[in-house]
Amino acid sequence: MKHAVKILLGTIIVAGICYGLNTLRREKAPEQEQEIIRPVRTITLQGGRDSMTRRYFGTVQGGKRADLSFRVSGTLSKVNVEKGVAVKRGQLLATLDPRDFNTRVRQAQSSLAQAEAQYKNAQADFTRYENLYKQRVIARAQYDSYKTQVDVTKSAVATAEAGVKSARDALKDTELRAPFEGVITERTVENFQDVTAKQTIFTIQDLSALEVVFNIPDNDIILAPIPQVRSIADLQKNAGKYYTMNARFDAIPDKVFPLGLKEIAAQATAANTYPITAVMTRHDDVRILPGMAVTVEVNFTGEEKDGETESRYAVPTTAIYNHGGNNYVWRYYGGSVSRIQVNTGQINNDASVEIESAELRNGDIIVTAGVYFLHEGQHVRILEE
To answer: Of 20, 45, 111, 385, which one is least surrounded by beta carbons within 10 A?
Structure first.
């Protein structure tokens, strides 16, 4: 009996020792906390230079343009050209019925002849009475009267001569001629129609040099990294340094047409846009005409320099992480994130911000949400869209 009790006590003691050892082991080696893998949303950087490229819609126009009209009113008697016809400088385009104008010339010439005759008679009378006055045969008052008559008739001759010139000019103005070589792009009247002075009859454009007109919104004017300049000549001279411009046509997708700045408005229109006029060199292998729609690509980074790495991109504002007065983004690679310091630029209308860093490249994956809940090297997983 005593032997059985001893065996029971020994078993209890061994079990107690084992339990104590297990408890001590658990206290000395607690379970490690499992790392939380946070889900994140991301974007992939693309563009570099393209992120600073803006596209605008514009139209083509001739380098020189003019609305042509008669300087006098009348009835069209002949229209010599149609729309789309190329014309030379001085070529006769249209004429008014000249009959009334010929009549006015003859009337003016008749008035001149009459005024010259009166002046001739007054001059003869004055000569005769001047001799009598010198002989003291007539009084001074009578002499002065004949002298005044000479002055009056001489003035009438000058007026009549001006009338003849005006009538002849009006007759000449019944002919409408091309002021320069170009193409008739518009015709607004038909033959035998009554027209008034200054009424547009044709529109002519010089197509030897073409221009592209487009509008830039005020937000892009602010965004463009173009310094303040004293004149348009400074922008023209340093165009490649500040920006580049190219034109593209939907019908010619594989061809790019470089543009040069001609003028830029210093005041916005009612739509808060600034009209820009650019010059495009004429290409004989393609037919580009006024009124054609064109897409203008303006790259505000200027020309790419040899060996220079483009590192400017647009990212959502939510991707920016500010710490210690500096701005950062989180770059995802291999399942974890690392912090990249960036310089930030203008905030765009689409809630994106321009960033720049020599460490960023096309194809880099950037976290766009929850950036303040991340730390260096943290493991994350990308949320599927």
So the answer is: 385
Interatomic CA distance for residues 16 and 6, integer angstroms = 15
The predicted structure's pLDDT at residue 309: 43
What is this structure's pTM? 0.58
CA proximity to 374, closest of 331, 343, 344: 331
Interatomic CA distance for residues 220 and 273, integer angstroms = 9
Cβ pair 42, 332 in contact under 8 A: yes
Just give the CATH number of 98-173.
Answer: 1.10.287
Pairing of strands 182-187, 312-316: unpaired
- Written as six digits, the tokens of 370 are 């929850």
Alpha-carbon distance 30 to 18, whole Å?
Answer: 18
Q: Is CATH 2.40.30.170 the right assignment for the domain spanning 53-63+206-299?
A: yes
Classify 114 in phi/psi space as left (phi over 0), alpha (psi -120 to 50) or beta: alpha
Topology (CATH) of 311-382: 2.40.420
Q: pLDDT for 164-207, tens place per residue?
A: 999 999 999 999 999 999 999 999 999 999 999 999 999 999 98
Beta strands per DSSP E along 84-170: 86-87, 92-96
Q: What stretch(es) of the chain map to CATH 1.10.287?
A: 98-173
Copy the structure tokens of residue 360.
């960023």
What element of type H or E holds 77?
strand 74-79
Q: Which pLDDT tens digit goes with each residue over 38-85?
A: 899 998 887 655 556 788 999 999 989 999 999 999 999 999 999 989
Q: Report the alpha-carbon distance of residue 185 to residue 63 in Å, rounded.
A: 13
> Residue 6 pLDDT more than 90?
no
- Token look-up 């000549």 returns 233
Q: What pLDDT score was predicted for residue 34? A: 64
